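COMPLEX REQUEST
Ligand: pyridoxal-5'-phosphate
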Amino acid sequence: MSDLNPLIWPHSVTRVKGEINIGGCSVTSIAAKFGTPIFILDESDLKSRATIWQKSLQETFQEHAGDVFYAAKAFVSVEVAKMIKELGLNIDVCTGGELAVVAAANFPGERIEMHGNNKSETEIAQALDYGVATIVVDSLQEIERVSRLAGLQGKNQQIVIRLNPGVEAHTHEYITTAIEDVKFGFSIASGAAWSAVTEIAKSPNLRLVGVHSHIGSQIFSSEAFDATAVKLLEFLKRYKDENRVELPELIIGGGFGIAYVESDQPISPGNLLRQIHKVVLTNCERLGLSIARFSIEPGRAIIGPAMVTLYKVGTTKEIKLKDGATRLYVAVDGGMSDNIRTSLYDADYTAVLANRDSIATKRDCRIVGKHCESGDVIINSILLPSDVEPGDLIAVAATGAYGRSMASNYNHVPRPGVIAVQSGMARTIIRSETTSDLLALDIAEGAKPIGERS
Ligand SMILES: *Cc1c(COP(=O)(O)O)cnc(C)c1O
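STATUS: Structure written out below.
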């Protein structure tokens, strides 16, 4: 099993007679029935990760445990929203589109939080209509908009304010900075955060309950979260001093890292939350605060490892490199339209030859897509059996987060569907697009004066 590291691949993945099985379904049967490329969701893997985050938060923070908000932007469909709902987690959405998906799953409004740095008035009104528990506000204009729209509906809307604590986190390091050159949040250091609080206090339609921060993604240790918690608690202390009441909610965001390749070593949810809990406890005591209700928003850490992408190899091409070495380009039937992360973030992935065992020696390969773009790369460098050939299936691990959700129709390539597998059963949860889906958006008619466009 050495090529299927359980820290990277979904729990149910095995090799049976040389062939990869996921959720008890063989990849050749999946390819035959659903076509390629296709995203395969290991349903029990997703559920167990969601449950682990929920349990770890409750066990570490106990009576101060708030909510686990699954970050829908990582990946959401109606079926996945239903799974999250049934597991008892909350959900966060950033747009009217994401809200529409979770609404189609009948997700209870009192378990939804709405983010976004530029929510339209329509989106705000939709969130209010649906009765979302919390709107996280991110600009002064938005405070005015939510206040006015809530007033029109005769509502007193619960809100949380997104703060920029001046902590910028990456996988292995973080920096604290007074200069916060990003679009998200109200800067604490510049005083913007305090002005926002003052503005909120003027509105009879808004009820501020806490502070929020989200500092980065694919973070592997607790230090950046610890530093963020301290900044947020110090802000809560100022609030307490000036208002003589405390805000009860502290939301530390998502960004918890996962293993894409062998060298990635993420911290476990339990260890991470224990460490943050210690910091929260110590600092609440130091600042004379009651302990806030502590919530988190994992997206990638729940859905990322639960999905793989299955592709079919179309062509292979050997390229001579400058140093005399060679590289095999393995082109698959998808690419940057279903996985933009490699070209966008220089992300790493791992993959295996999925439909058969091979005893051929391994060689350096580059897995590329079918798009008209030389940056259309899925994996820059990976060892695959040298006899990989057209018709073979390639499975790429840990594509659940920011894969299908960031997919595009570049080159008019239909976006792949998603199937959920469990106990030998496979079902479609998002169907694959067809060229008819793409053509359905084309409106062929004569040009009209600009004022008359529909
Ligand atoms: C993106 C995002 C998340 C989830 O991030 P992951 O890296 O997927 O865990 C959580 N909260 C907010 C506000 C976000 O923007």
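REMARKS: The chain has two domains: 14-42+305-439, 115-298. The radius of gyration is 24 Å.
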